[in-house]
Amino acid sequence: MSETERDANEVPDYANILRLDDKVFVVLGGGFGIGYQTCVALASQGAKVVCVDRDPDRARTVADEVGGTPWSGDITDRDTMKRLFDEVPEQLGRLDGVIDIVGLARYKAVYDLTDDDWQFHHDIILRHAYLAIEYSAKHWMRSGTSGSIVFVASVAGIDSSPNLAAYGATKAALMSLVRSAAVELGPSGIRVNAVAPGMVRTPRAQANPKWTQELLDANIQATPLRKLAHPSDIANGLLFFASDMSSQVTGQTLVVDGGNNIVFNVISPKP
User: Fold this and answer.
1) Exposure winner among 13, 34, 63, 108, fewest CB in 10 A?
2) Is 194:161 a contact under the CB 8 Å cutoff?
């Protein structure tokens, strides 16, 4: 091939495009399960990690392991979130990304849901999400910088998983929020994405007596890859969105469930 025929586009440094050296990432819910793996994944690529957890001991333990900064507080509280996003850039000199892991489900039939159940899912899934977008985006826009925001959604917001109506509805709303935020913040160079796991072998899931071995086996057989995800599988997707590997990707939800959602729904435990 002659010089005139060769592609003239610049070739990026593919070997280092995943690196996050000296970049600062806030991980909400970083003390456990997917959050812990995400803190480790980010730190392995050179990032400075702020491990946020409601339990100060968990935040400190993970932060110590990855050479990061522990931070504890109730992220559903507006004043707490404002303080977090004021303190991080002030103390660490910059903010490059936010990864929000926090979420929890109550298994209930749709006709048994209470007002408290509905508010619980809103607070534990949506409230901190829009606060994270608000305060990180305002920081980046004030400082003339940009960053990446990544959420953990769920296939429950895409499929109709039994006994997860409120959880699925709020996860679907989260994915809609991701798309809207991506459109509004894109001109400022701010990317917003999500990873939607199926069933994951988190410590919390494995400790749940409702998830019997029979139920686990049924989900494995319903999954094309014939295996369930581990927290590290989800952290891989989050790392992709945090890094420049996804520099041209925004407003997207990456499903990480072994192909389950394209064939069958997750088989949920009974209430």
Assistant:
1) 13
2) no
* Active-site residue, from 36, 111, 130, 167: 167
Question: What domains does the chain contain, in order, with CATH numbers?
Answer: 19-262 (3.40.50.720)
Please give the Cα distance from 72 to 222 (Å, whole number): 39
Q: What is the pLDDT of residues 170-211, one digit of tens each?
A: 999 999 999 999 999 999 999 999 999 988 888 887 777 777
> Phi and psi dihedrals of 121, rounded to 5?
-70, -40
Sign of CA dihedral 102, 106, 107, 109: negative
Q: Which residue has the tokens 């991980």?
A: 27
Establish whether 135 is a catalytic residue: no
pTM of the model: 0.92
The C-alpha torsion from 25 through 88 and 57 to 237, rounded to 10°, is -10
Cβ count within 10 A of residue 13: 8
CA angle 62, 246, 135 (to 5 degrees): 60
User: If you count them, how many residues does the chain have?
Assistant: 271
Token pair belonging to 133: 């977008």
Query: Whose CA is closest to 199, among 149, 242, 233, 238?
Result: 233
